[in-house]
# Entry
Amino acid sequence: MSKFDDIRSFHDSEVNEALQSIARHPMMKALMNFTFPEVDESIWLKKFNDTHSIFDFQRNFISQTIRTILEKSSEGLTISGFDKLDKNTTYLFISNHRDIILDTSLLNLVLLESGLIMTSSAIGDNLVEKSFIHKLAKLNRNFLVQRGLPLRDQLKSSRLLSEYIFELLHQEKRSVWIAQREGRTKDGNDSTQQGVLKMIAMAAGNMSLTDFFKKLKIVPLSISYEYDPTDVLKMPQLLAKHNDEVYVKDKDEDFATMISGVLGQKKRIHLHAGDVLNSQFDHLGPDCDNKNKQLQAIAQMIDASIIQNYQLWPTNYIAYDLLGQTNHFSEKYTDQEKQLFERRLEMRIDTSDVISMQSFLSMYANPVKNKMMLKILN
# Structure
């Protein structure tokens, strides 16, 4: 027994039994038929029998699933920055978060194909309430972030999570992926929550914050989708926020969002691995200074890297110009690209509703605005 048993992914010794327990589940059959449409069921069932590690499951099955998703629902994945990472070093990837499944899955495909250490990845326990999805997540090296706990239990859970992340990085020699904020960014404003960093820092012990965060080898990760396949699904929550209302999710909303994210059209996708944050922490000041200010400064470093390295697409520039009724970035897109985006807009929302229109456009335009605020664009 381990104190991490309630949140950890499967150990390799548990993989085969767990895989066999869901091998004939209808959702597994659908997943394999999607991934290997020309392959008889008996073939992949036999390969399941021979699968005894998470790496083998990811390499032989999940990586091919992600390649199939890219083939069917995108115009390709490009990457940058990963060539600067060391194949024998573990990193803490802190990432902007747009899609429940794909953000971390795409990263791990890139790491696999680059010969880099793949990640254990954080996932909210609210997303894996179905038994099949829970087991599949643990087979894909996900660990659980416990949501909706009372305050006292939340503190205990956060400390446990922090210790587990540190254990993965420095004992198990496993890279880690975690989103920069709780839940996905709905409005296109990628910003790091101090609370996430505060949780991570709980394992610092007697180390100064600067020494601790250096030890983590943080890589800010920028993930950019030309089309957000779940853009329209984010609208109800954005509108509730605009109207200062409490938003309550439907029972199966997260599951529907996962499916839409996987199957919906994304066009081009780009992942950029930022420089490892290290010497930047030397400018935070001595540890006796206000720790909240230090965490705020670290959050700003991560944000600056993610925003600077975010790949802007024609959709972002078009949305910015439509929102401001300008032609400021007209050289960044063609008339055809603008017409296609406007058509998408008309098909997905009521364009006569000004608030809906502004919220949808802002989702795509805010990355442009954020770069302008950093004086990366003019």
Remarks:
- The first strand starts at residue 74 and ends at 80.
- The beta strands are 74-80, 92-95, 119-124, 142-145, 175-179, 218-225, 267-273.
